């Protein structure tokens, strides 16, 4: 049914690159705090850099849990599941690093990506474990189109108001962990 690997195989790379949505899960250290799972759309925001590294653009949003959790402990899992005819689920477990907008290394980590308004960080993941499973329980669904809402929201706000939004809404996680400080 499934495999567990230490690197992203060519077969799994092709699967990952063909998916329209992925899910990111993180958690704070210890037994308290909230586990976070975020859906991410727009397949152009994630790049497999090599068999042991991937990165994705973190776009300004209502929360900043992933950034806070990664800054605290680095643990992350990313999941893709096929909603097409051929079922499969792939999970990549690893250690994540946050490259925040405004930091010295931020621009260098943007190079694999097309410009995207609202980008507040690049999340880089060092792969530790890759697993696949059947996906038989995932429904078959069609992608109608990418939503323009996030891009429209960012355009309407403009860069200056996005900076202010991140300062007001993204500085801390829901558990009070530091996320974004510029």
Summarize this, please?
With 182 residues, the protein is an alpha+beta fold.
Characterise this structure.
This protein is an alpha+beta fold and 182 residues long. The protein has one domain: Electron Transport, Fmn-binding Protein, Chain A (Pnp Oxidase, Chain A, Roll). It is 24% helix and 33% strand. It is built from four helices and eight strands. It has helices at 10-18, 65-72, 106-110, 149-169; strands at 4-5, 21-26, 36-41, 46-50, 53-59, 75-81, 89-100, 119-133. Strands 1, 2, 3, 4, 5, 6, 7 and 8 form an eight-stranded antiparallel sheet that branches. A hairpin with a 7-residue loop joins strand 6 (75-81) and strand 7. The chain is globular and about 45 Å long. The chain starts with a strand and ends in a 13-residue tail after the last helix. 24% of the residues are buried.
């Amino acid at each position: 049914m499934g495999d567990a690997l230490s690197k992203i195989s060519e077969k799994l790379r092709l699967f990952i690159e063909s998916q329209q949505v992925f899910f990111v899960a993180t958690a704070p250290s210890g037994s308290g705090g909230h586990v976070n799972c975020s859906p991410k759309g727009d397949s152009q925001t994630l790049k497999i850099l090599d068999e042991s590294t991937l990165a994705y653009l973190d776009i300004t949003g209502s929360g900043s849990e992933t950034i806070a959790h990664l800054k605290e402990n680095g643990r992350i899992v990313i999941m893709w599941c096929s909603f097409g005819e051929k079922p499969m689920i792939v999970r990549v477990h690893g250690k994540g690093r946050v490259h925040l907008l405004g930091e010295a290394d931020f621009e260098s980590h943007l190079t694999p990506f097309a410009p995207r308004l609202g980008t507040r960080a690049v999340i880089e993941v060092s792969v530790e474990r890759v697993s696949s499973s059947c996906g038989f329980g995932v429904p078959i669904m069609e992608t109608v189109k990418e939503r323009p809402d996030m891009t429209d929201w960012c355009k309407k706000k403009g860069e200056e108001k996005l900076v202010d939004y991140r300062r007001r809404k993204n500085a801390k996680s829901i558990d009070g962990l530091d996320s974004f400080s510029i």
